[in-house]
Amino acid sequence: MTQIRDFFKDNSSNTNWEKDLKYHHENRDPEENKETTPPEDEKVFIPTIWAMEAYPPSYFSNLESRIHQLGWIDSDKYSNSDFLKKLSQYRLRSSGWASVGIGYVYPHTDKNKVYPRPRKAKLPSGIDWVYLNAFQYLPSTTIISFQFKLKDKISSSVEESLRKKYKTYFKETETGYSIHSVSNQKQKNTKLTREYLRSICRKWVKETLPGYFSSKISVNKIPTSEVLILEKAQPFSEVKGFPSYENILDINNKFWAWESEEMPEFYMYLDANKVSNADCLVFTANKTKLWMRLTFQIMVVEMKLKH
Fold this sequence. Notes:
Order of helices and strands: HHEHHEEEEHHEEHEHEEEH
Number of helices: 9
Structural class: alpha+beta
Strand content: 15-25%
């Protein structure tokens, strides 16, 4: 094996790697950095991430215990303080569907004046608040969704990763060298940034209200979904060549995406992470078009209620 490796290294040196690297740095890298960077007036951000946890019969007692420890059923402090009692009743049903809004959770230090009587808990530094909703889809099994509102700075960390400048480098391998281009590095770091944001949410669920998914060996088993918003561009509007920042964000090929019939500006796709084995559903849209659609639908509902 050593002889084979040395053979390739000796022969690869004849191709003048230093010269190739200089060509990339002076000619290819500047253009590739430009192609993979969003326009100056574009904003890319992840405002919110959801995590889901399941509580079958063998995990519900632990959920009750954790909620009591957090003090979330104190009627003098919180509204809807009987949500745990409601859940226990819904779990006894043989059929039917039900939901209970547990409400907002803010950091202990936050002096919130927007939402009345929010629950308090220790939250990660990059999270503004968490909203909890409990669903009873099946008898005796409760599903809780955790919506994490990301602070502006951490929400735009994906855009920061896309705007960083990279330089091609060669890395020594057993049989020679591997080339790590600007696109390769930017795609890897952007994926790592998104996975980091999701991991913050998964970790909080596992540490605060662990259930069935938290009991698995890896915290990555906790299902997540994220909302990816673009200020100017419309996701999946056209197929861009490689490299491009749309390719790095996986919002380039409509073939892999699901488009909503009721909200055609809204797309969903599966971000499969082969390294961490942590798949995530991504909902993506243009900010302006999404807001216009939501405003229109609210107006329609209001008109129906008036008549």
